[in-house]
Amino acid sequence: MSTTTVPASTATTRATRAELLRLRKWPAVWITVGSWLALSLMFGYLFNYLSYRSGDSSFSNEGATKATLLAEMLPASVPDVLVQGMPMFGGALMMVLGAIVAGNGYGWGTWKTVFSQGVDRSATVLGSLVALTAYVVGILAVTLALDLGISLLIAVTESQDVVLPSLSAVLEALGAGFLVLEMWAVVGYALGTVARGPALSVGLGLVWALVIENLLRGVGQLLSWIDALTTVLPGTAAGSLIGSIVGVGGEDPTPGVLDTVSGTRGAITVACYIVVAAAVSVVVVRRRDVG
Amino acid sequence: MTDNHSLVVTTDALTKRYGDRTAVDHVSMTVRRGEVYGFLGPNGAGKTTTLRMLLGLVRPSSGTATVATDRVGALIEGPGFHPYLSGRDNLRVLARARGLAGTEVARALERVDLSNRADDRYKGYSLGMKQRLGVAAALMGDPELIVLDEPTNGLDPAGMADMRELVVDLARGGQTVLLSSHLLAEVQEICDRVGVIHDGRLLRESTVAELRGGTSLRVRATPEPEALAVAMRLAGDDAVRRTATGLALDLPADAAPHLARELVAAGIDIHELTTVERTLEEVFFEMTSTHHEEHVS
Questions:
Q1: What is the ipTM of this complex?
Q2: CB contact under 8 A, A112 and B70
Q3: SS3 for A121-145, per residue?
Q4: Which pLDDT band, with edges at 50, 70 and 90, does B4 fall under?
Q5: Residue range A62-75, pLDDT digits in tens
Q6: Nearest CA to CA, how far is B46 from chain A (Å)?
Q7: Where does B4-211 sit in CATH, by number?
Q8: What is the pTM of this model?
Q9: What fold does the segment set B214-277 form as a domain?
Q10: Contact, A125 vs A282, CB < 8 A?
Q11: Judged by CB atoms within 8 Å, which residues 1-20 of A form the interface with B?
């Protein structure tokens, strides 16, 4: 059957509007977004503030002094706080988001319903990815606003001078954060598409991101060729990009934050994964039989 | 001869293979503009796979499928909607994806009599309501061709009657309906032409009347051997069959008086002489069982 003959940009815009509507009304999306915000604030401010107020040195602050703890919670540190959780739970949650956005439609038969109405498959996938990207941008914006608000509150509460981060630092953190979250979201989308469902894709994706890559980095210390391979893995690239902003210091650095490759190379690798994962999604959906 | 411009759907040797299994085998069918076309076949005959190929959901292994319009609405193998959205929002999502006005949603819901439950979540719908929402989705945008795959699945008798009425209304409005079903009485009632598919092959494509093959006569008379001899003389040896209830003759209804006179003249007592019209169901079972026997032998 011939698909409706409308310009690709119009078809993509239509698909984006449709996806934004269904994502806005989907509880699972808000649970995932809420989980990121809660975890981000918990590890960025709550535990540190409790530790600062009580004077305890614990797991969450890794024995930092009270002055250091306070400095990490003030507005000037917002760019670091914004991105430090992204290589670990931020990426994992965005992968879940991408996998459910793409994968659930196969189980529910909603992709079949859409494609049987004569809409263009490529435009539909691109529209879906644009809507997913809009959520990633929204998540970043809300996280930045919350981080700024809470850090200002802490500064005022603790009678500290309010020193805002430089615009360049904020933009750098936003750019890096966008690349990392977008990469995991689009990779999750590609996995959900290939697996035709969210369960397998989420499971495999999380095992890869949280376990396999860490194991490979360990093995890489013994075998040089595996060590070379790990430098192009998505987790290594994302961790290194974030590491170039927040730094990888101390004996017990933030999980997932690395200095394996430079920030620039990390950014390029992450961008490549975004393009490849999006292309895989489009090609697979265009070519496959939809039951 | 059919003018090509009047054809909405044309397939030419359409074939789909899954590994060694041939699900659809060289199907060549045509659906004319403005007709209700019944696509008949038992479960697993290849109906849904053929429709999927028409709609571009599945790629043919060989052959072609041409749909001469891009205004197509379809319900294929049951409805597929987002369970967390209301019926109305599900249609709004589809309307946005297709660039349709929001008014299309309300109109489609009204058409399938679902307006009063449109704001309930889809996951709370009964099977019949889900089916009606699927049909509503197919009706949005005033499609020229509407493909309905087993649209009465899950509907109660009243719902089935409503669906039949809706299909007839659509045809009256000039829309072409391609209706797949295994409910033969339903097809006999509302379809202009039918295609019968079995084991992936299109066995026959014709009008319902042609397929049913007109009428036959049934006679119960004694003594039966003499009655059989008279019947064979009139109708021919191949046109007479012995059945549990008497003799069946492949003769038109207007041959009944002549038959009666001949039987009486031969001194045979007639206990019953009736005109029998074969149902689509009888023809269908005859065709599919014959095909099956040929296939097995």
A1: 0.89
A2: no
A3: HHHHHHHHHHHHHHHHHHHHHHHHH
A4: low
A5: 556 888 889 999 99
A6: 13
A7: 3.40.50.300
A8: 0.86
A9: Alpha-Beta Plaits (3.30.70)
A10: yes
A11: 1-6, 10-11, 14-15, 17-18
